[in-house]
Amino acid sequence: MSLEELLRDGAWTTEPVRAAIDDGVLRVEAREGSDAWRVTSYDFIHDDAHALLAPLAAREAVEVSFLLDYSEQFDQAGVMIRVDERTWIKAGVEVSDGAPQVGAVVTRGVSDWSVAPVPEWVGREVTVRASRAGDAVTVRARVEDEPWRLVRVAPLDPTADARAGLFCCAPSRSGLTVTFTDHRRGEADGSLH
C-alpha cells in the first residue's frame, strides 16, 4: 500500500492541520498539542495524534519511512497500530531531552515508554517496521539501509481488529511538518531473531 493509497483509503484518527502528497512524499503538518498517551506518570489522557490507518491483518507487517528533520521537544513520527483508545502501540523517533530517541509507547489501559538515543540519525531517512504475528508485535527500526535494530516486542491479542499506518504529533509546538517518504505492507517477519 503506497502513501497515495493510504491517503486515499485510510482514515485519520485526528485530522492534521494539513496533509498532501508532493513530489512522491506525504507532508503532514501536526496540530500543536497533539499527542498519544494514557495516564502513566503524567496523569492525563491525550488521544489526538495524527494517525493515518488502514486494517492490519493478523500476520502482516507495516513499514513507515520518514525524514528525521525535526528537532523540537516531543516532536515525533513513526508507525501506529491501534485497536481502540485503550489499546495501541506507537513507535518511531521522538525528540526528548534535546536528542532524537528511537522508541515505543505500548498502551494497554495505561501507557509505558521506552527510548534510546539516536543522534546519528538526524537529517536521514528512518524506517520503522511493526510486524504482527501470533500474540505479539515486533518493532524494528533503522536509518537508510543500515541493519535493523530491535526496538520492542509487545503483546497484542491475536484476534484483535487492528488498524495500522503512519503517525505524527507535536505535543509542545505548532508548525511541525513531517515528510513521510514511504508506506509498505507485507508478510509478517518469519522469526523474532
Automatic annotation (TrEMBL):
Pfam families: DUF1349 (PF07081). InterPro entries: ConA-like_dom_sf, DUF1349. This is DUF1349 domain-containing protein. It comes from Demequina activiva. The lineage of its organism: Bacteria, Bacillati, Actinomycetota, Actinomycetes, Micrococcales.
